[in-house]
Amino acid sequence: MSSPLDEKTISIVKACVPALEAHGLDITREMYKRLLSNPDIRDLFNMSHQKDGEQPKALALAVLAYARNIDNLGALGALVERIAEKHVGLNILPKHYPYVADALLGAIAHVLGDAATPEILEAWGKAYWFLAEILIGREEQIYEAHAAAPGGWVGWRPFTVRRKIRESDTITSFELVPVDTKPIMKHEAGQYLSFKLDVPEHGSQRRNYSISSEPGADHYRISVRRAESGVVSQWLHDTVQEGQVLEVSAPSGDFTPGLEKNSKVVLLCAGVGQTPFISTLGAFLKDGTKRTIHYIHGVHTAQDEAFTDYIYALAEKNALTADIFYSHSPIPTNRSNSNVHLHEGRITAEWLKPHIDITADYNICGPDSFMRDMIKALTEAGVPEKQIHYEFFGSAADAELVGA
User: Fold this and answer.
1) CATH class entry, domain 264-401
2) Over 80: is that where the pLDDT of 257 sits?
3) Distances (CA, A) of 275 to 202, 222, 248
4) Closest CA relative to residue 30, chosen from 140, 95, 122, 108
5) Containing H/E element for 343?
6) How many CB atoms lie within 10 A of CB 394?
7) Please, which domain of life does this record's source organism belong to (predicted)?
8) Which of 90, 86, 103 has the alpha carbon at shortest distance from 30?
9) Which of 45, 63, 71, 334 is most buried, by the most CB atoms less than 10 A from its CB?
């Protein structure tokens, strides 16, 4: 249990907010430059997030949110939980934290220069370790839960690609079973798997992919979109074949729409953001609870659309209603179902607003800009915060929603 921060430390950290607003991204870029010079630490990170600048930006937002809320850490509870879940998926251990502390404090000193007084560095050292101990404690709880769960494990476990399924022109699914043939831990709908991959000419890579299979199956399934410049996604699509072995950590993530919640559910997604909801639909249908389910999905073209037959089959059974949007092509003319409505264009806040039921639970997944638009529209319409659930693809991008 972390000892409470003293008032002096809290006061100094909060006084640093203007400096973080001005120089936070420079600090996190310098921090990662220092941190990633160590090959053992570098291999823990998704390097694509470094190349596109996402990870330094996400960390800068998270540090700023921490500084702003250091006297009200309850506001950061959801963010802390998501970071802990990500760390467990990537097998981050207590021994890794000192490296981050050294890199962060060194970066603050480097960027702020003489303004980074010994008093400021001491305060940030205390603040860092206060948060680190919270994360380490929560991560230990998650590791213990994984180890104790039937079929659970800690660390990397080898899985074989049992089936490789082309879902669309841009999405391929991989059905995974453990090499040791022992049972696997039952995941919760909405969780993801983390992978340690050795990609030829690119070395060790880390990635997270949402699980698209229903909970309780004898396998896990991930459904991966081919990214135009994606080192790992292109390797998975083009090179990985049935029979190949991949290193996988136990299911993680807190984006888990509860089965016991509202009987009215809206699944609102764009692009490959649909994948956790395919698992969610399987869970909803399996538990037998009567629900009104509205599935709303935005996709570029019909050729990019995955799980089409599955959605139409559920609509045929009156298990859901659906609205599908095609932003880069005309509406397909070879599909017909009274419970499925097809639209040209994108899902917009203007379209969503008249369709909002403020008594429903909304689950949202997709590109950041899409999610922010949807969350804003729902909030402005009066949907209670507790009924809006979302998952960002980035490492900690939702820091912007907690005060950054």
Assistant:
1) alpha beta
2) no
3) 27, 8, 18
4) 108
5) strand 340-344
6) 16
7) Bacteria
8) 103
9) 63
Residue type, 18: P
CATH topology of domain 7-148: Globin-like (1.10.490)
Q: How far apart are CA 354 and CA 357, in angstroms?
A: 9
The Cα 283–Cα 324 span in angstroms is 21
Terminal Cα distance for the chain, rounded: 26
Q: What is the pLDDT of residue 76?
A: 83
The number of helix segments (H) and strand segments (E) in the chain equals: 13, 12
Question: Can you tell me the mean pLDDT for 226-247?
Answer: 95
> Which residues are catalytically annotated?
97, 139
What is the DSSP track for 133-163? HHHHHHHHHHHHHHHHSTT--SS-EEEEEEE
Q: What percent of the chain is predicted at pLDDT more than 70? A: 93
* pTM attached to this predicted model: 0.91
What is the C-alpha to C-alpha distance for residues 57 and 62, in angstroms, rounded to an integer?
Answer: 9
Cα separation, 119 vs 122, in Å, equals: 5
Q: What is the torsional sign of CA 108, 112, 113, 116?
A: negative
What is the domain partition of the chain in residue ranges? Answer: 7-148, 156-252, 264-401
CATH of domain 156-252: 2.40.30.10
